[in-house]
Amino acid sequence: MSSYPYRIKSFGTKALLLEWPKNISPGLIREISAFGDFLIKNYLNQPKWEALPIYHSLTLISPEKEPDLAAVAEQINTAWQAFAGHKQKSGREWVLPVCYEGDFALDLEEVSNRLKLSPAELIALHCSVSYPVYGIGFLPGFVYLGGVPEALVLPRRESPRLRVPAGSVGLAGVQTGIYPQQSPGGWNIIGNCPIPLFDAQREPPCFIQIGDTVRFRAVSAAEHELHRIEGQVGIYDFSKRIAHDADK
């Protein structure tokens, strides 16, 4: 049984929301994600529920029209007593290329001015961190990455865009993330990642999972185009390392 306390509450008529304390950490999200897998596999598999972990919560959605939520809550508590912890689920680190040049970096100059950093300093800071994956949504494959350096923390744009290009890399508060498809959005766009994050024909559709970490590697526009082609045909080499890591 885990030492993290939690509470259960109804979330509409077909779902339950499990909430843990708001001390967001990589260990907690790994715990929540692993517990969701454990719960679905061993307790809520007939019919199979859907488990959606993010930050410090887990949403459980029923395929039935009118599930007995009280009975399910009892199953959840039983499962929690039997749960061994997140050691059964380890994450992977992904290194993704990002071009911070020209039209790929719609807000880079404005963000640099607001944060009193040069573009080069901003890019170096953004690439200096291994970001934990705390959630996947609001679009299929949109990864919420936490742990942004304090010097890069800033609010969302006052006026959201109607069209943010696919692959756009943005900053918002203490988060950074990648838009997997063209979408409206209000994050500050500082670059673009050419690697497709979501493919409905793939299993799983999003290769990055909660509990993984992501690092960014700055590339030129020409490299971005090369990696875009590699990503489309599925041959991008994720073993490419960031320069200062390779030198260690």
TrEMBL record:
Alphabetized, the UniProt keywords read:
ATP-binding, Hydrolase, Nucleotide-binding
Write the protein's name.
Inhibitor of KinA
Q: Name one GO molecular function term.
A: ATP binding
Carboxyltransferase domain location: 6-208
Can you name the source organism? Robiginitalea myxolifaciens
Q: What is the top-level taxon of the source organism?
A: Bacteria
In terms of InterPro entries, this protein maps to: CT_C_D, Cyclophilin-like_dom_sf, PxpB
